[in-house]
From TrEMBL:
Coiled coil: none annotated. PROSITE patterns: VOC. This is VOC domain-containing protein. Residues 4-114 form the VOC domain. It comes from Litorihabitans aurantiacus. InterPro entries: Glyas_Bleomycin-R_OHBP_Dase, Glyoxalase_6, VOC_core. It holds the Pfam family Glyoxalase_6. It comes from the Bacteria.
Length: 118
């Protein structure tokens, strides 16, 4: 018996528009809407889900996505901001460089170049 990751699920008070945003920026597609209460996005890397809740947990999310780009990091940062993400700034640690952003509903995620991803 082996355990594997099925999908990553995010709580949202309005999951359908958030799922559509993630599908757009990741080149995926919404594959299940379930009347807007549990929305599934299929991407090349795996599935994301967005489930409706009455109220999201306040504060910084404890789990976030670390995305990698195989091209120009600055151009990808600009594309994401133009698509509706908010930039929390550029980060560096040694030779590593990445951006921390939030999606349109405030969920944090990071974007780094492929060569700096473990």
């Amino acid at each position: 018996m082996a355990l594997h990751l099925g999908m990553i699920t995010t709580d949202s008070t309005d999951p359908l528009p958030l799922a559509r945003w993630w599908a757009d920026v990741l080149g995926g597609e919404v594959v299940a809407e379930n009347e807007g209460w549990f929305v599934v996005v299929a991407t090349e890397a795996g599935a994301l889900a967005f489930q409706r809740v009455e109220e999201v947990t306040p504060g910084k999310n404890r789990v976030h996505l670390d995305l990698v780009v195989d091209g120009d990091l600055d151009a990808e940062h600009e594309r994401l901001v133009a698509a509706g993400a908010a930039s929390l700034g550029e980060r560096t640690e040694g030779a590593a460089r990445w951006f921390t952003l939030t999606d349109p509903q405030g969920n944090e995620f990071c974007v780094a170049p492929e060569d700096h991803h473990p």
